[in-house]
Amino acid sequence: MNTSIHRLISKSGNLIAIRTLAALAALVTSITPALGQILPPTPPKSPATPEYVPPAPPPPQATPTPARAPTAQTPAAAPEETKPLPTLIELDAAGKIKPLKYPVEEAAVRSLGIGSAAGTEEAKAKLDAAFAKRRLDVGRTIVEHMEPLMEVRKVLAEVTDTTSLDTMAKTATKVRPFRTNALLDFLVREGAVSPAQKTQATQVAREYKGKIREQAMNDSGGHGNMNAMALIGFKFTMDDFCGEAFRELDQLLQESTPTAEQTLRSLPGGAAAVDRLRDLIKPGSGTAKPDAVKTVFFELLSTQDKQAYLTTFKPELTPPPAPPAPATPPASPDTTVPAAAPAGSTPPAK
Hints:
This protein has 13 helices and no strands. The protein is mainly α. The longest helix is centred in the N-terminal third of the chain and has 37 residues, at 2-38.
């Protein structure tokens, strides 16, 4: 009986629970619309705030350039006119190149007309002073090196296309004193010509030398004659080195003509030289006195008399004295160590 009651109670409890749950469900269902009318709807979930990115700076504003005041336009400089170089080449009636009055480089410098324009008198005076100083330097070199210069002159007078190359080579060694001081370099050092003018003079001289050499080659039979080519090359080389000295010597002898007899008499063997000079210029001889003076100078006078003739006529040609030789240092005191006594000898008594 008790068991029956428990089951009845259990069933009744379950029934009550079911009914209670049903009632609660009906209640929730009935009040949900009402709650929806009283409470506002749940707002939707707001999206995530994006990361802050600062705005790009505004583009820089161009600063207006103030307008320049109108100025007068400077005209472009006109290109400097390049004058053609002068030429030393002049032909005679036979179509041959005329010889020059001056050495080639000096003639080239003079052809540039330095100091010829108005307002350039100072440049002309400086050039003339440099040429005068150059003449004096070359004259002193002639006096000092008379013997090798005369040897070169003799070889040039006798050389032919059969002269050996050995003779030419030996002669070339004698011109060293005359090739170490070129005229154009001397004029630049003296400030008489500029480096640009030296370049121009070099080009003028080179043109003349090339044409005169070509003329000599054609006169000798052309470039096929090797012996003639060697001879012409030797002569022109010697003229490059000694030509200025030869011309200066001729000029000195020409200037000395009026006093030649007096100058010759002052020499040790001058009496014979004077007689020879008078014989050369006697009436009917046809020899001009300047030519007679050169004949006597080159053929009769010794090397020492040649030097004395020039320095007597023009004393400033005397080369400056050589600098004194350095003094011999005094002998050092005698510090010789006495020789050792022979073995077994008895030293002197003190």
